[in-house]
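Notebook, bench 3.
Goal today: get a predicted structure for Splicing factor subunit from Ilex paraguariensis so we can plan the truncation constructs. The sequence was checked against the plasmid map this morning, with no discrepancies at the termini. Length recorded as 114 residues. Pasting the sequence as submitted so the record is complete.
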Amino acid sequence: MPSLHPVVTPLSSNQELGQRSLPLSRWLSASDRFNINSQLEHLQAKYVGTGHADLNRFEWAVNIQRDSYASYVGHYPMLAYFAIAENESVGRERYNFMQVTVDCFIICSKFSMG
């Protein structure tokens, strides 16, 4: 009886999709790299959540967590879902989420101050 799972053999770098294996820097010209960087800077200036050049990994994660909890508080159906899942009242869940949001702000400010 044949196996139900096909045997997959890895392709060499020259066989992959019929293309030669080149580093990304060789595919992009200098103007392409400048264009990509300028687009990224534009997005970072326009949208707060995309960060900036000096943002480290911890601050980025705290921003994501803070924004998520703020969204949960602002969207009643999601807040009600969490309240049912944790067997708490909607008001208690809103209070807990607001506390987490404030705690995120305090932790991030202590971390960035030194």
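Residues 65 and 104 are 8 Å apart (CA to CA). Residues 5-16 have pLDDT under 50 and may be disordered.
Flagging this for group meeting.
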